[in-house]
Write a structure and sequence with these properties.
Structural class: alpha+beta
Number of helices: 9
Largest sheet: 17 strands, mixed
Shape: globular
Helix content: 10-25%
Strand content: 25-35%
Distance between the termini: 59 Å
Length: 548
């Protein structure tokens, strides 16, 4: 019996014991019926033969990329990365594929050979969001052999500007012998910092094969880092506790111990315990999938246990599921709730491949004065020096400060702040550009047909503590959102009682659903503290200090 058959049997047993509601949010991840892709088309006995080489415009060296031939009609006969092609991998139900036209493509490490029908052949070559896509039509006669060179150039060099791409949620087996192949895939998508995760099913066996899939056999943490040029991979884990939620764990020294081997991780421990174990192992932990409703998400954020919130995923900001209501998560409004009561909570964009349609469909760009290591890149994410994106490059400064930075003024100060926003998005034009302050739209620009380049300056009078961010988006799975710049006046944090009440309402949903008594009691205690915050503007919560 393979691991998916074992999982099916175990999950059915679990539902019988604990009821379907506790597991409904996990079922689409594992059992969703992926629609079958059409087969390739044989080019016939008169096929031409293309030998294609892809090179970087500056270095003139071969570079990895994704390629579609005749809209996916043909693929190489000899393809070392075939199982990762868009035709054979990932989930066609989720992600930007639902709203973007994407031709079936395959991966190449810079050179490939393919048989095509005689006549015109369309090559579509892409490499992440910084390189300009190339569409090239070549014409070959019957049985002709043709050499083709494709030159890729960046429309923007983000690293030269101090911004580095990363994806914190990728599931790929790491065997100890396939690092070159994995780096070919991640570099083809221009992911400079790729965090590969194992994942447990409904049980947990501390990294063993009983419940763990996408095994990371090279170990976890700093010792697992491999690189090729500017591209890095490292190994971590996704810890899944059905009924409590999922967390992404990057760079722990080893697997979190949890409570040891268990057949059902939803019995505990609390994900707060997992967070403490992660930090003791020098790891970074994020709340996955936007934080699932009626689980531990709000508790973990109120206790400041999470280093980041994984919010941009599956082609949206995770407001609700196309499959089940139980998959709903915080969304932008839920994130704003925490910012509006004073928390400094960074978000990331992360793809969750192959449970979404494309590797690196969502990514995070982090700012660093020097070229990061995987660890210092994760530190930048934790600090919120970043923006999440599924295409647009989104830059914002507030009085010269970048996302994650802090401005502080004396109590009673009245000043005007200059907010500058710029968007660069040649692949996926942006229709809306918003400047957000304390969860409200300060200024919105709109262009019916979308624009690839935007600039916007806004002058904001500051009279009290405020967080400021920018949001660029389209209707077709195209999003980008900066983390905030935090502006403090005196020793006050931003506070909106309506946001606090929204958090209480979600906590009450968690209380109603809770099946673990000690976790339910913690929800009750936190509800009491948030009510105190509304009443007294003071509570026993780990809110940040304001004074410089």
């Amino acid at each position: 019996m393979n691991r998916f058959s074992q999982l099916r049997v175990a999950t059915i047993c679990a539902i019988a014991l604990f009821g379907p509601a506790a597991f409904a949010h996990d079922l689409p991840h594992v059992f969703q019926d992926y629609p079958k892709a059409p087969p390739t088309t044989d080019p016939g006995p008169d096929a031409a033969f293309l030998r294609v080489r892809i090179i970087d415009a500056i270095s003139r060296e071969p570079i990895s990329a994704t390629v579609s031939v005749n809209h996916g009609e043909q693929e190489p006969d000899d393809d070392p990365y075939r199982k990762f092609s868009l035709r054979l991998s990932a989930n066609r139900q989720k992600g930007p594929i639902r709203s973007r036209q994407i031709s079936y493509y395959f991966y190449t490490d810079g050179a490939f050979q393919v048989r095509v029908p005689p006549g015109g052949t369309l090559l579509e070559v892409r490499k992440g969001y910084e390189y300009r896509p190339v569409e090239l039509t070549v014409s070959a006669a019957k049985k002709e052999q043709m050499d083709v060179e494709v030159v890729l150039e960046r429309s923007i060099d983000m690293a030269a500007l101090g911004w580095y791409s990363g994806d914190t949620h990728i599931h790929l087996d790491r065997t100890g012998k396939n690092d070159d192949a994995l780096l070919a895939l991640t570099s083809a998508k221009d992911i400079r910092y790729a965090y590969l995760l194992s994942t447990n099913t409904q049980g947990y066996d501390v990294g063993g094969p009983l419940y763990e899939s996408y095994l990371q056999v090279t170990g976890l943490g700093d010792k697992s880092v491999a690189r090729r040029g500017p591209y890095h991979i490292s190994s971590g884990q996704e810890y899944r506790a059905n009924g409590l939620g999922h967390v992404t764990i990057a760079l722990p020294d080893r697997y979190v111990p949890a409570n040891g081997v268990t057949s059902f991780a939803n019995r505990g421990p609390s994900l707060a315990v997992i967070a403490d174990q992660t930090h003791a192992l020098r790891g970074f932990i994020g709340l996955s999938h936007g934080g699932l409703y009626n689980m531990e998400g709000d508790r973990l954020l109120l206790e400041d246990k999470m280093d980041f919130l994984e919010l941009l995923q599956f082609g949206s900001f995770q407001m609700n599921s196309p499959v089940r209501r139980n998959d709903a998560s915080l969304g932008l409004a839920g994130w704003y709730d925490f910012l509006n009561i004073g928390y400094r909570l960074p978000i990331v964009g992360a793809c969750d491949y192959p449970f979404t349609r494309e590797l690196a469909s969502e990514m995070t760009y982090a700012w660093s004065e020097t070229v990061p290591t995987p660890r210092s890149y994760a530190e930048a994410l934790k600090a919120g020096r970043s923006f999440a994106t599924s295409g647009p490059m989104l830059f914002m400064t507030v009085a010269g400060k970048k996302p994650g930075e802090i401005l502080w003024f004396l109590a009673g100060a009245e000043t005007n702040l200059v907010i500058d926003v710029r968007v660069h998005s040649p692949q996926y034009p942006v229709r809306y550009l918003d400047i957000i302050a304390n969860g409200a739209v300060l200024e919105r620009r709109f262009e019916e047909n979308g624009r690839s380049e935007w600039t916007l300056r806004h002058i904001l009078p500051i009279r009290g503590s405020t967080w400021i961010a920018a949001h660029a988006y389209n209707d077709a799975g195209t999003e980008a959102h900066t983390n905030p710049v935090y502006v403090y006046v005196g020793d006050a944090l931003p506070f909106n009682p309506d946001s606090a009440r929204q958090i209480i309402a979600r906590l009450e949903g968690s209380i109603e659903r809770s099946r673990v008594p000690e976790i339910g009691l913690r929800y009750e205690a936190l509800r009491h503290e948030v009510n105190k915050l509304i009443r007294d503007r003071r509570a026993d919560l780990p809110l940040p200090r304001v004074a410089p």
